[in-house]
Amino acid sequence: MVTSARRGPYVCGIDAGMDVVSGKWKSLILWELNNHGARRFGELRRGLPGVSEKMLIQHLREMEEDGLVHREVYREVPPRVEYSLTEHGTSLNEALRPLGEWGKRRHERLAAKDTLESA
Description:
The chain is mainly α. It has 5 helices and 3 strands; from the N terminus they run ααβααββα.
């Protein structure tokens, strides 16, 4: 397994939490696995338009190392690998839910502002 330098020292809990979800795709991987359950690599890639194969592999490895994602390898032909959220990943997703709600309200506010300005 890959060892990472992402282990602090941390100034506060937010610092430690943001270290685990740093990167554009990690929160979206959490969302995808939470909403759709276990997913194969190709399904994840299709569900995250714009992510490169290299970046998805890197993020999944880091998330597995951090205990957020479980990688299940099925010994069959052709080989099948599925990714799912661990209990730790599910709890992180729950912790991010208020941020998602805040972001949705921000998006709506900005859209309303744009509508007013274009009128």
